[in-house]
Write a structure and sequence with these properties.
This protein has helices at about 5-25, 30-40, 40-50, 50-65, 65-75, 80-95, 100-110, 115-140, 155-160, 165-170, 180-195. It is built from 11 helices and no strands.
């Protein structure tokens, strides 16, 4: 099978897995159930994903792909650091508060083994956070940001941009935000972040 067709078929299988996950939870979403619903063979499932954890790790990584691609595009374009960070914040919010990320987080919370939680960390935060740290380091080098007096920059950025929104989405306390709401929240979060990480003003030579 050609690679493009394989990738398209994997996305179809993973879309089916999301549907089953929303209905049955992590424990009730087996490789066999996904294979049957997606009309895929068990052989194909295990060859492509290895096991159930591999399937969900692929789902997590694919869900985070938009954030990685946005950061790569901004990096290649050499966009001004603060503008780039605001764009990253918008894409990141859209991904983390989207239905698929929420479905994964709800399932992870119900998975007593911790396997899905580990996949979320490995395929999501562990891959995206270092890229955010690179943009923050670039902003510091250019003198438009400085490390906060307490704590680290990347966790502060994540806290201001996402905060408790993902938890509230997962427990049903927050509806899916519209794009307009995401932009408004990000604008406020970035203003707060810039204030907390403002570089020290140079002393007046006179």
């Amino acid at each position: 099978m050609r690679e493009d067709k394989k990738q398209a078929r994997m996305r179809e299988i993973e879309a089916t897995a999301y549907d089953l996950l929303a209905r049955n939870g992590y424990d009730g979403t087996s490789m066999l159930a996904v294979a049957k619903a997606a009309r895929a063979s068990n052989e194909t499932m295990y060859r492509w994903y290895g096991d159930k954890n591999g399937l969900f790790l692929s789902m997590v990584r694919q869900n985070a792909r938009a954030v990685r691609e946005a950061m790569e595009a901004l990096s290649q374009a050499d966009a001004p650091p603060l503008e780039a960070l605001e764009e990253i914040a918008k894409v990141l919010s859209g991904m983390l508060l989207g239905e698929r990320a929420i479905a994964l987080n709800r399932a992870a919370a119900a998975d007593a083994s911790g396997a899905l939680g580990a996949a979320l960390l490995a395929g999501g935060r562990a891959e995206v956070l270092p890229l955010i740290e690179e943009f923050l380091a670039r902003a510091v080098r250019k003198g438009v940001l400085a490390p906060p007096q307490e704590g680290k920059m990347a966790p502060l950025f994540m806290h201001l941009v996402i905060g408790d929104q993902q938890i509230r989405r997962a427990i049903g306390g927050l509806p899916p935000p519209a794009a307009k709401e995401v932009r408004a929240h990000v604008k406020v979060a970035m203003a707060q972040f810039r204030r907390l990480c403002a570089p020290a003003k140079s002393a007046d030579p006179g």
